[in-house]
Amino acid sequence: MPDLLLELFSEEIPARMQAKAADDLRRMVTDKLVAEGLVYEGAKAFATPRRLALTVHGIPARQPDLKTERRGPKIGAPDAAVQGFLKATGLKSLDEAKIQRDPKGDFYIGLIEKPGRPAIDVLAEILPVIIRTFPWPKSMRWGARSGKPGALNWVRPLHAITATFGIETEEPDVVKFEVDGIESGQTTYGHRFLAPAAINVRRFEDYDAKLLAAKVVLDPQRRKDAILTDAKQLAFAQGFDLVEDQNLLDEVAGLVEWPVVLMGSFEPEFLATPAEVIRATIRNNQKCFVVSDPKTGKLANKFILVANIEATDGGKTIIAGNERVIRARLSDAKFFYETDLKTKLEDRLPKFEQIVFHEKLGTQSERIKRIELLAGYFAPRVDADVKMAKRAASLAKADLLTEVVGEFPEVQGLMGKYYALAQGEDASVAAACEEHYKPQGPADRVPTDPVSVAVALADKIDTLVGFWAIDEKPTGSKDPYALRRAALGVIRILLDRDIKLSLTDAITSAAISIRTQFINRETLKLGGMAQVSFNRDNFIEGGFPIISSNVTTAISNTVDADENWRRLGDLSLGVLISFLREEEDPEGRLYYVPSTENSVSIRPWAFLPDLLAFFADRLKVQLREQGARHDLVDAVFALGGQDDLLMIVRRVEALGKFLETDDGKNLLAGIKRASNILGIEEKKDKRSFDGAPDAALYGLDEEKALAKAIGEVTAEASAAVAKEDFAAAMTAMAKLRPPVDAFFDKVRVNDDDPKVRENRLKLLNEIRSATRAVADFSKIER
User: Fold this and answer.
1) Cis? peptide before 450, omega within 30° of 0
2) How far, in Å, CA of 551 to CA of 693, rounded?
3) 560: how many CB neighbours lie within 10 A of its CB?
């Protein structure tokens, strides 16, 4: 069957767009072919800086003929309806139509035959449409062609279109069409400098070979392999190791059609600058690789560049040009670094007071204070020094204001570590400056130092609680504040570091800090001094803040005092309070509570259940990626009050192992049978069968044995769960299997005696209740 060769030859396509463009071209062409009934055998797309290419092989030479039936009017219908039917179907008379018998009457049926068209004609129709509607993220329109203004939007000026179609043994045909004055043909061009002449091509194999002879490597993967191999060999020959960088390799492969690897150098004194800064400078500005000394593991004063030309001087001029630019860039980086060292991190903090983190969440300075408090809260829970954790939290964001991070944002955190060490901070404080951002993805490592763990948790929890408090949650695929990543980061830290933590307490602590800042801001607006401290002890039960007397006076003297008090109550509770009444605690401090004369709904931290559910969903994602069953997570979460993620995972693991045993499988089947019977009977009777069964109504030994086993297992499993020994809890559950099996084998639940029936249904409910000591088995799918 024939093959298609398509090439779109243009000016340089940005490297970052090439891979997606090649995939879009393949998808758009093949989707159209299938839609036209041309089912192909295979397709592959390629991209270089100057061309997009596609080969589709095994395309049928023509479309299949289509036969469809169209239902017409009833026999005896008005003439207008009949004439419309004949016109739509192309029939000359009703004699050519079939008659279909139907209970509603007899209908005319017209058979429409649509002969298939040659595939080359279909391609000539669909390819121009694809080119004109191609989804470039950014495109341009250029000057007039043939006296007409250009109308095509393309990433860069399009110069030629190659489109051929044919079988291997014959000369292919050109798929003839025109786009914006460019006519399709079978002419392409080689390397811009090394082989710029026109090349006549026929099919893909011929096209690929001729391009290679014209110094163009068409396949991006082949270019990557060549660059990586040559770079490693060149570095090894000089006694160095290549510092591999996959993202840079992908980008460089999109910048060249004929890669030529060369090595340059820079002055050794620049190595006094941190290695990451040197690498970022050389990578970002010149798209070059760095090398390291295998003896020390440190960077060497060499770099590897990839040229797009075989220079007559062996690349000396190219190397010299790159060295000149890199020398200037490294000089700037060295200056930035040395300038940054002159200012301590804490001296930069006042500038954060003028930088807004989010209009509803205050400044960066306010956020840093919240993170500092939370780090102090988390520190004893992760075996970190409280003072050190708070110090690290106060400095962790300071490097955002440095010159180096301003120039290279990707080294934020890392530079904070270097600056902290340079100013004599403890190694744990310095490490936290870098590690508190981690993990930033599934492949990123989690913090290891306890101080880093405390600050990382504080940073992520504050972010999540803050955006939940202002109702800026992720919706669908949109997550502009990376809240899913923050939640997964918290989960990974807790699980990888085996940290027991109540999420409810952590979220409440973060919420109190945020609400307190809101209250302070409002009291300042009203003329009072912000006296509510960042301390959860200053909140009475229920979430009401203790407010100092000078604030009370300031607000009471405002024109609309009642409204202002309501605003403060609203901020402290997260719900509307119709009126506040002044109270005094035993120490003489004033606080405000809802007036008893008004009906008020009090729901402190109303977003807490939703945020906990968000963590539960993220945990399911995490466990699913690790091969765990999401239904087991549901079974544990369904118990309610489960907010210690480490304990949830351990319980899920124990439950999973238990269900792999025969006892577990059979007990699950018995529990589901009990639940099904209860569900049916509860629906029938329109009531639940709660309450303890009456032992006096047990008439069979199997009933008595089951009741006794339920009592013993419930106590044993509950005690094991309390000790967080979930394996023991599952072992206790296994003891239910024999009496449950015996009960269903010998006992008829729906006894003729209503009292006995009710008692046995209550006993079934006891089975369900007993197993809820470890999980809600009704949530388990199998």
Assistant:
1) no
2) 60
3) 10
Please, which residues have CB within 8 angstroms of residue 240's CB and are 6 or more apart in sequence?
291, 292, 293, 294, 300, 302
pLDDT of residue 141: 86
Q: Pull the structure tokens for residue 551.
A: 């604030």
CB 37 within 8 A of CB 59: no
From the list 441, 442, 423, the residue with the least C-alpha distance to 433 is 423
Instruction: Give pairs for 553-557: CB < 8 Å, separation 24+.
Output: 553/528, 554/523, 554/526, 554/527, 554/528, 554/529, 555/523, 555/526, 555/528, 557/527
Measured distance between the N- and C-terminal CA atoms of the chain, rounded to whole angstroms: 49
Q: What is the residue whose two structure tokens read 């001094």?
A: 529
Percentage of the chain beyond pLDDT 90 is: 52
Amino acid occupying residue 375: A
Q: List, for residues 468-497, the tens digit of each pLDDT value.
A: 988 889 988 889 999 999 999 999 999 999
Beta bridge partners of 113: 67
**pLDDT tens track for 49-67:** 999 999 999 999 998 887 7
Burial of 606 (0-12, 13-18, 19+ CB in 10 A): middle
Close Cβ partners of 454 (under 8 Å, ≥ 6 residues apart): 375, 378, 379, 381, 382, 384, 389, 392, 393, 432
Which residues touch 149 (CB under 8 Å, ≥6 apart)? Answer: 143
> How would residue 575 be classed by pLDDT, with cut points 50, 70 and 90?
very low
Euclidean distance between CA atoms 268 and 38, whole angstroms: 62
How far apart CA 759 and CA 750 sit, in angstroms, is 10
